[in-house]
Amino acid sequence: MKKQVQAVLMVVATGLLPTVSxxxxxxxxxxxxxxxxxxxxxxxxxxxxxxGYVAExxxxxxxxxxxxxxxxxxxxxxxAGLKIQTSGAGPLGSARITLRGEKSMQxxxxxxxxxxxxxxxxxGPRVNSGTGTPAYGAGSGGDLPIDLGNGLNxxxxxxxxxxxxxxxxxxxxxxxxRAANGALMITTxxxxxxxxxMQVSLNSYTSFDSVLKWPDYQYEYGQxxxxxxKQGDFYYSYGASADGVNTGSxxxxxxxxxxxxxxxxxxxxxQGQSAERQLWRPxxxxxxxxxxxxxxxxxxxxxxxxxxxxxxRSSLTFLKxxxxxxxxxxxxxxxxxxxxxxxxxxxxxxxKLSFNxxxxxxxxxxxxxxxxxxYFMIFQNxxxxxxxxxxxxxxxxxxxxxxxxxxxxxxxxxxxAYEMLNGVDKRLFTGxxxxxxxxxxxxxxxxxxxxxxxxxxxxxxxxxxxxxxRQGFYREQYIKNQEYNNDLLLTYKNQWGKLNLNxxxxxxxxxxxxxxxxxxxxxxxLAGEYSLNNAISLLTKVPKPFDEQVNSMYGLLSLSYNNxxxxxxxxxxxxxxxxPKANRSFFYPxxxxxxxxxxxxxxxxxxxxxxxxxxxxxxxxxxxxxxxxDKYYSPSDFPGSVTMPNTFANPGLKPEKNNNLEAGxxxxxxxxRLNYSFTLYENNTENQILSIPALYESGYSYRIxxxxxxxxxxxxxxxxxxxARSKYFTWKTSANWSLNRNRILxxxxxxxxxxxxxxxxxxxxYFNAVVGxxxxxxxxxxxxRNDKGEVVYGENGLPARPANIEKVGNAFADWRAGWQNxxxxxxxxxxxxxDGQLGGMAYSQSHHKMSEQGKLRHTLMGRDNPNGQxxxxxxxLTADGSYVANTKPxxxxxxxxxxxxxxxxxxxxxxxxxxKLRDARISFSFPREVxxxxxxxxxxxxxxxxxxxxxTEYPLFDPEVATLDNSTITPGVEIGQLPSARTVGxxxxxxx
Length: 992
Description:
Largest sheet: 22 strands, antiparallel, barrel
Number of strands: 55
Shape: globular
Distance between the termini: 53 Å
Number of helices: 10
């Protein structure tokens, strides 16, 4: 099957371009040369031909045409080497954006930097702190993770002019530490109205979401554990009855087959055992019918105007989302203002301001925990009607005791949706002002100041009788994050004949401060009243600061000769507050070059129109997190007290080093009707700042060190073509393909030959670093096999258990590809894109539990066997060391429970190869004579879709799976994932 997937994806990657005759090419209008202007580091605009590294740009139409709650997902599959992964945890869809694979052993240190109009966005797990709880927390008495959104959610897609993706360290060297993993340079729109006239535009869309894919549930057998009555027949009884003992308290589905029998069952009218035997039947929609068709409504109104001296743009957007899970969703308001004014021929002022408010009364929780809807879906039995839960509260016990008739550990799904509320009110203000002064014809000075101010209020409500909070719970969190960026840039430009010089020197100061106040009511005096004054026990945490400052100086020298040969040299020095005085100053350079070989060789532009060679090298220094240099006490849950740190600090900490080497070429054929780009790169990261286990006798659990070296190598290819073009018809297509391989070259000497466990999830899946291995390697217990690969069973008839964990697979794909198409016929446009990946593995906690309980169709094997027993296929080790076939029968529940046990990572881990129809759109633009008659400039109507079709052998909701573990999005592990959505919608765009 992998070979089939590979063949299909290779077709996707190459685009299956039809042959275009040479005569058609010669007769066509010449395509634009590769002279595009792109936004690079520090917001400096450069000609693409001069760059010695890859900088891909995604235009505004991508974000306007395929609307998403998180706009970044619109780029999935459209840029080689770019991976956007969400946690599958609800409507806000916080994204984990990586470029060219993983480089750090710390999962949260692999994010790309987000830059908006030249100002870095202080995004990431630290700013978007989670609830402080792991994904696996069933029965722990604690809470569970919630996707509360990140900084990307605050950016309005209607305001985006373009996004330039700077992939390597060379491309982003001038941004320093945070850009070591590449950067996304977002440029927002400014006033560009036609002929000095004011332009008003309205962009409105409505979309609907439904569940894309379901697990393969079984509805042939009901609740039970293979209990037999006096007659020796399998039976069911809710509570003890004349038929036998109670079998209705189990979460397993190893009960009788549905064959029109009658048993004593649960009666919702009496909220107990039925007076008479009832028909034994399945309720096939008892999970799916809980989920609704979600909806999103968005309206954007923008006004813009420009003349010779002034331009402005104002934008107002309101979005309302009602997600697929009942009583969940959010409202989002965006206000943006852009003003640019020439005070004189030498001085220009630019100002951009934006305000975002995201508000929700309830966002869904995720993870394997009694309070998550994922937990309920796992434990729901085939013979249980979902409607039995709908009243929520027992008669006469409103707000005090819920209806959960089968187990006190399984919370009522409607209680989860309507009473366990996770609210958020997030206000984010960002703004920047810049002054560009032309001192002389050759010398200019740019002063820029940016601010980001986040104020967020979170509330958590847990009612009486919930599994983890019997007397209720209420929490308020107040988060404040502020970042200030100030920089200046002095630029000198000159030309001597064919030699062109462009040089800049600058300096910047970045300061970030973060603080969170946390108040918790442990238990409520009065049921249903959520306030801190109603607390039985009030816990208040004294806020702990988390501040950081980085001062920088940098320079850029660009030389070109005859607009054919180009060389760039950059240098940057940072002084970071997170490093000790002796090491806080660190310097890093970069060099890049390109040559337009087609012009040097004077090639025939009708065949090979353009040929560019490029290469670059860069070194980037990376500082650590705040407060890793000394011992700091933390506020405890008890007022007036603190806790000792469990991590031994490192006062001699050094910065990490990231070395990047990149080379490639860009080709244009047939007057650039066909363009091809090829890139090879290698990235080495060393002196990584790691937290490793400490000796027990030291009194600490962990200690901070420098150590380890990671190498990344990869290949990227892109291809775009204008396949056909005439007066009425145009077909453009593009494709990309990327491969990344990383290898762990060294580990800290403290580990010797032992692996370093970088992280673990659920206590069963370990991300272990081993010399020669790769980041993303999944380790866990596997099936024990003999030399022939046969599964070894014990004398008890169950699979034998190995003594040690082993590598099961890797969380990241072998390679990824995307294919986009755009057809235009007169006023109609049809566009669609596919993308997919080959390889990658993911462990599924949900698959383990549903298999253990007999909820999935693959557990039907052996159900008709005598006495409900099964013999596992494999061998048994005999006393003389030989193997014989296993013949020991065991109960079905014992077999499936052990074969798919939680710790058996092998049997619950699956290939995540997939192909998706990522988006599709058909639109109609009204003819000019119609729009002019109406006094309008443009009217476009469109139908669009997202995730319309998917092929995969991954058995759960979505192969692009990741777990939200506290605030960390962890690929390769599924624990309580929520369903992903298929989206269809309608869009109207009017300009006048």
